[in-house]
Amino acid sequence: MYLRRVPRAVLVAVVVGGCGADGVLDPTGHFGQNGRIQVEVTSLLPGDAQTGRLDEILIWASNGPWLLTERVSYEGNLGGEALRASRLNPGDLAREYASLVQQLNQTQGLRLFGGAVPQDLEPQCGGTLPSTRVVFIIEDDVRGEVARWARCAEGTLFSFEPGSAAPDAGAARVITAGQLTRFFTLGEASASSYGGTIPFAALEQGEDSPAREEVSRAFVSSDGEVPDDFILFWREHAGPVASLPRVDWASEMVLLIAVGLRRERGNVVRTRRVLPLGAATGTRVEVLEQVPGDFCSPAAANIYPFQLVLVPTEDVQLPIDFTDPRVERVPCGA
């Protein structure tokens, strides 16, 4: 049997048998044996402004496939979304899923059922508690039931540890369950697509800008008023009578993500991460360009794909450097 390597500290012996949500042995199998596991993690993004968050949702089906969705936001507005899906043999993943479900049903020290970990606790994470909210869900399709636990920890899906779990003794089991789900699906060495980024929000994006900008650049105000260079850009981009977008120039800046002329439709540019590197180095903005995959046959056209991004100024260190776009091929119809 294929088994993904996980840290020895969290590997436990598997006890044969099955039980329902109430912890009673059940001949029909373990709770969640046919269904799915879902881990939902909401954490604050780094930065002085504390106005952004990272949402991670990992869903793993009992027949093997899994999907991870990550979303970064600023003041409730979406900045970017990254999807990751399983590529391993579904049969191997299904056996790993069954192994984990069996442990969560029965193994001493890991078991979530039987009253060991209450499901009715809804802690308000932050303040005196760790700031990250973790929700662990097991759905059972045969029974038509859902088991759900919410707890607090520090870090993201890729970094939280049971040692930071709160507010009760059972919280460590919930966080460990989330850890094991990540280890068995994404692997021990995996990392977040948005790791280390400060918050940002997509102000506007599209396939073609009339401004025809060739390179990315930043619009920053020195006095809290709309910068002259942004006004000039906006007139070319949106038209001379178009209203300016709502930006608090005293506390925010706008990043223009541009890659110049492209000769086929379907190209999309995105901000992947905005990374402060230190006072002496500044900030690096990682650019992603998504292009139609092989055999998609997009229509020929001269376009200037773009994205406008809103970033809290106090989290950004100057100068700002934009990376060359990393190209990602997207399957037709995605």
Textual characterization of the structure:
The strands form four sheets. The protein has a six-stranded antiparallel beta sheet with strand order 4-3-2-1-5-6, covered by helices on one side. It contains three helices and 16 strands. Helices cover 13% and strands 35% of the residues. The protein has two domains: 8-185, 2-Layer Sandwich (Mago nashi protein), CATH 3.30.1560; 201-330, no CATH class. Strand 1 and strand 2 form a beta hairpin. The protein is globular, with a radius of gyration of 23 Å. Helix 1 (90-106) runs antiparallel to helix 2.
Q: Decide which structural class fits the backbone.
A: mainly beta
Describe the oligomeric state of these chains in a short phrase: single chain
Helix content: 10-25%
Q: In one word, what is the shape?
A: globular
Largest sheet: 6 strands, antiparallel
- Approximate strand percentage: 25-35%
Low-confidence stretches: 1-27
- Write down the domain tally: 2
Mean pLDDT: 89
- Output the radius of gyration: 23 Å
What name does CATH use for the topology of the largest domain?
Mago nashi protein
Order of helices and strands: EEEEHEEHEEHEEEEEEEE
**Can you count the beta strands?**
16
